[in-house]
Write a structure and sequence with these properties.
12 helices; two-stranded antiparallel ribbon; alpha/beta; Spore Coat Polysaccharide Biosynthesis Protein SpsA, Chain A; seven-stranded mixed β-sheet; about 325 residues
């Protein structure tokens, strides 16, 4: 990331940063569209994308779509990606997952706070509400991680381990305490304690320095699986996060752009994808369903999906009915 191109923002601007390579760019477009469509002041949003090799065609398409809803466009930030090449990647995650670590190096000292969002998200709430959260005394505002048990290997308490898909970042404290450098160092020095890409390293450095935000700001699939962890939260917070999510996070392999999906709210991705000039989702065929339902675990996921969709309908949630659009 070039230090001689530090960004500044207007006084009332809301800085939102994501990162993407070319494969994820169409899905980031859907995320940005949902963000703008549900924002009470879209003209205040300044959108940034850490560019992991996005084609000019995808950049143009993204800019066209966000401008429809009042944004000035997307600022694509190029930087030296080789810095991340020697960091290991896990499963379906690419090295672009690490780019968020360097966000403080993107802005000058006049920018005190930004929101980071993963590409596999849809924003349903008003991002201004999240933005106005006071994190003056904290390095980051985040939501407790409800998916998996990676906190065990890391060796910190479950309720001190956050999900890094949505981060409200206090840039002042990150700069002061040199958090990017500490995260990189932690990642390299503690390979035996890490079972995610950057999430474990971020938690290793910041697990006592983050503000717990409402579960609705990072709606995770763990909400659909009652456990000792979810029981520790107030019942009304769990129900609010399920029924009125501010940000839906499609964690793991079950992405909403797959031909066959099992997330109860996969249709929320379609709701915004179908408004674009070119929807990045494709229509499943009979063989796709046949392959998807060929295992007992997938059939269990289907059963859970249908159960929760029935619950949503009973509680008045407007589930999006997919239109049969092809790519």
């Amino acid at each position: 990331m070039s230090h001689n191109q530090l960004r500044s923002l207007p006084a009332d601007a809301v800085g939102v940063v994501a990162s993407s390579d070319d494969n994820y760019a169409p899905h980031l477009t859907v995320l940005f569209y949902s963000l703008l469509a549900n924002c009470s002041a879209p003209e205040r949003l300044s959108l940034f994308c850490l560019d992991g090799g996005i084609s000019s065609e995808n950049k143009s398409r993204m800019n066209r779509e966000v401008k429809k809803l009042g944004a000035s466009g997307v600022d694509f930030v190029s930087f030296d990606r080789q810095r991340f090449d020697d960091l290991p990647t896990i499963k379906h995650i690419t090295s672009s997952a690490y780019y968020r670590i360097s966000i403080p190096e993107l802005f000058d000292n006049s920018v005190h706070k930004v929101i980071y969002l993963d590409c596999d998200m849809i924003v349903k709430g008003d991002i201004i509400e999240l933005w106005e959260t006071d994190i003056t005394e904290f390095h980051v505002g985040a939501v407790e991680n409800l998916s998996g048990h990676t906190y065990k290997k890391l060796g910190i308490p479950q309720n001190q381990y956050f999900n890094s898909g949505m981060l409200l970042i206090n840039l002042d404290l990150w700069r002061r305490d040199q958090i990017p450098e500490k995260v990189f160092r932690f990642k390299k020095e503690n390979p035996d304690r890490i079972s995610t890409n950057d999430q474990c390293a971020l938690n290793g450095v910041l697990h006592e320095k983050w503000k717990h935000l409402h579960l609705k700001w990072n709606h995770q699939t763990g909400l659909y699986r009652p456990s000792e962890q979810t029981e520790a939260f107030p019942k009304d917070e769990i129900e609010d996060a399920i029924l009125s999510p501010g940000i839906i996070h499609y964690i793991g392999w079950d992405k909403p752009w797959r031909k066959v999906r099992f997330h109860p709210l996969a249709g929320e991705y379609d709701r915004y994808a179908d408004r674009l000039d070119q929807s990045p989702r494709s229509k499943p065929g009979f063989i796709d369903y046949l392959l998807a339902y060929a295992s007992v675990s997938r059939l269990k996921k289907l059963r859970r999906q249908l159960k929760w969709q029935a619950w949503y309908q009973k509680n008045g949630y407007n589930l999006y009915q997919c239109h049969n659009r092809t790519q």
